[in-house]
Target: D-glycerate dehydrogenase
Amino acid sequence: MTSVLVTRRLPTDVAALLRHLTGIDIDVETWPGAGLMPREKLLRKVAGRAAVITMLTDRVDAELLETAGPDLRIVANYAVGHDNIDLSACQQHAVVATNTPDVLTAATADATWALILAAGRRIVEGDAVQRAGTPWSWAPDFLLGREITGKTLGIVGFGRIGQAVARRAAGFEMTVLFHTASSNRARTVPGATATPLAELLARSDIITVHLPATAATHHFFGRQEFAAMKPGTLFVNTARGNIVDEGALSEALASGHLFAAGLDVFEHEPHVHRRLRELPNTVLTPHIASATSETRAAMAELACRNIAAVLNGQDPLTPIQS
Ligand code: GLV
Ligand code: GLV
Model:
C-alpha cells in the first residue's frame, strides 16, 4: 500500500484528505510525539514511504533520501522556507520537493506588524509593568515608544511576504522602500520604491527582513549593516535567524544605536542568544509568525494537495524553485 510519513501531528486528517484526493487507500503514519521527531526515528520510519511531510526542523539530505529508498516521490515541507532541504540531493534522487507559499503570507505579514507595533510601542515592557503589580503613574515621559505612522519602512526581501508587509503599511501612511536581490518576479506594490540597500539602511526608521535563508544571505545583517542604520532604528526579523548576526545585533541594541528589535526567528533555535533575552528593548516570539489555526490548516491542506498531485502523476502545485 502507498505509504506516507508525517513527522509531526497536523491540524488536518491527512489520511482522509489524501484518500479523498487520490481515490486510493493510503497508509499514513504520523509521529505521535509531543516534540520533534528524533533524527534516528525519522531515518528508520522513512524507509519505503512514497511521500513524507516534513517540518522546517527536519533535515532533508542525501542520507535521508537514500534511507527512504526508491519509492519516495515527494517531500512536502510544511513551511515556505526550505533551508532544511538539500534540493540538489532531491534532484539526484528524483524526489519532488514542495513548500507552502501563499497560504501563510498574510499570517506572517500580520505577525511582522505585530512585532513592529509591539517593539515600537513597548507593549511587552508595559505588560510586564502591569503584571509585576508595581505602582506606576501616568507621566509625560513614561515608556515612550517610536511613532510608526508617517515614518519610513525599509523592507529587505520583497517576495510575497515582503510585499504583503508593504501593502499593510498603507494604513500607517508610510514611505515604503524595498530592496530585493532577485528581479524575476513582478514587484508591484503601489507606493513602494525599489531602493539600493545602502540608501534603504540610511533612510529607514523601521527595517524588516523577508529574505530566504541561503548561503548568500547568511549574516546578511552584521555589524556594518547595523552601523549604517539611523540611530533609533527599529529592526524586525520574521524570516530566518541566521540572516542576522545576533552578536552584532545585540551590540547595536545594547549601545542604544537601535531603538528595539522584534524577532520571531533565531540563529540556533530553540536557543536564543543570552543578550537578546536580557535586553529590555527586544520583543522575542518563538517562531510563530505563521501560527494561526487558519494558516496551519491551509498549510496542511496544501502539503496534502502536493502529495496527491505527485501520487496521481501530475505536477505538484507548489514545487520549490531552486
Ligand atoms: C516558517 O518559518 C516557514 O518557513 O514557513
Ligand atoms: C517569499 O518571500 C515568500 O513569501 O514565499
Q: What stands out?
A: The domain at 105-284 is CATH 3.40.50.720 (Rossmann fold). The mean pLDDT is 97. DSSP finds twelve helices and twelve strands in the chain. The two ends are 31 Å apart (CA to CA).
